[in-house]
């Protein structure tokens, strides 16, 4: 018997598995984000189980595909909580899926850590659910919109921004928050447009944006459609800076836009091409080895998925139980320091703030020659 087999055997002997739900889009247009997140969670589970698991028990991931459909998100969450008996849930990716499903963990008093969705309601839920069981370890729209606008107006000194966002909950939440950030800087967009998922030609919107006198394009959407924006800009010969949500780092943007994506800039919690700590490098080495994927399809989603399980594991260890209210209380008062892939976290959550990621954890990445590079590269 190998050392690893012996270790796992001892874990199993300590009790039944601790079931953790993981859900997101594992098929369809958003699958790149979902699969990368799931891989990050799987890698963390493998590492934790190899070291003895939690409370002497192995972690068992219960994975479900929500297909990026809002109603499916709610159905998946109900199944995880009511039929699978998970002690916590990680995910999802899409804002609509999150907002359609978060009421169920609130009602069941089971913690959820949203590890990718930037637009999902988190702290906003306190008004309806004072005990709030929903947490997040991704850069929310407030942080992203502020950083996008600061980059465009304060850093690059543009004065006439155009906004172009998809018509989903995610895109329109981002648009509203970017407009609010612009108002705080006394700047008004000269154009506000939108597009649909699966649109491939943004020529009409971009022609209107150019005619409005825009000197920068601020975008909110996901990879395939954002690539269509970049390609349409090239098609009409319009050269302005494109600054947008973290999804500009998706391989679906970089691969589909090709050279037309160069210069696209976005807020990032993790950049694969620029590991800064031994922890980040160890994560990359393990991920590349386990999944034979280099570059990672959506590195941000993978890193945040990985960190979400480690944060949950720290809370379960601290609570000494998988009881939902006690794990929630531990998350709100985590002791010690967690050196994660997306940053170092000290007391990441509190009883009134369930957002782990702050602006200090985020940098502006830029696409160059098919890669996302950190600032100054």
């Amino acid at each position: 018997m190998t050392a690893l087999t012996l270790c796992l055997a001892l874990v199993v002997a300590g009790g039944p598995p601790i079931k953790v739900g993981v859900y997101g889009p594992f098929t369809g247009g958003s699958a790149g984000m979902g699969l990368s997140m799931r891989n990050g969670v799987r890698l963390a589970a493998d590492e934790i189980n190899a070291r003895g698991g939690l409370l002497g028990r192995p972690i068992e991931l219960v994975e479900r595909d929500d297909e990026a459909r809002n109603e499916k998100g709610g159905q998946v969450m109900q199944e995880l909580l009511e039929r699978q008996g998970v002690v916590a849930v990680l995910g999802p990716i899409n804002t609509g899926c999150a907002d359609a499903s978060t009421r169920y963990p609130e009602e069941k008093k089971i913690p959820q850590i949203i590890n990718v969705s930037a637009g999902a309601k988190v702290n906003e839920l306190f008004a309806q659910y004072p005990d709030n069981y929903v947490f997040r370890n991704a850069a929310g729209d407030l942080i992203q919109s502020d950083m996008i606008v600061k980059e465009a107006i304060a850093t690059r000194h543009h004065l006439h921004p155009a906004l172009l966002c998809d018509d989903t909950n995610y895109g329109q939440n981002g648009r509203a928050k970017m407009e609010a950030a612009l108002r705080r800087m006394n700047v008004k967009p000269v154009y506000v447009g939108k597009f649909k998922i699966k649109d491939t030609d943004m020529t009409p919107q971009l022609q209107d944006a150019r005619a409005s006198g825009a000197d920068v394009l601020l975008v909110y959407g996901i990879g395939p459609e954002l690539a269509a924006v970049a390609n349409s800009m090239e098609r009409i010969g319009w050269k302005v800076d494109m600054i947008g949500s973290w999804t500009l780092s998706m391989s679906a943007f970089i691969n589909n836009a090709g050279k037309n994506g160069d210069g696209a800039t976005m807020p990032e919690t993790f950049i694969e091409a620029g590991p800064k700590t031994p922890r980040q490098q160890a994560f990359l080495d393990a991920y590349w080895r386990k999944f034979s994927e280099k570059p990672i399809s959506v590195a941000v989603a993978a890193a945040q998925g990985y960190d979400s399980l480690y944060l949950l594991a720290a809370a379960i260890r601290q609570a000494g139980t998988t009881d939902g209210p006690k794990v929630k209380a531990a998350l709100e008062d985590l002791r010690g320091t967690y050196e994660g892939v997306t940053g170092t976290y000290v007391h990441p959550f509190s009883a009134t703030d369930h957002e782990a990621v702050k602006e200090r954890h985020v940098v502006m990445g830029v696409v160059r020659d098919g890669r996302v590079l950190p600032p100054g590269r």
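The two ends are 48 Å apart (CA to CA). The chain is about 40% helix and 15% strand.
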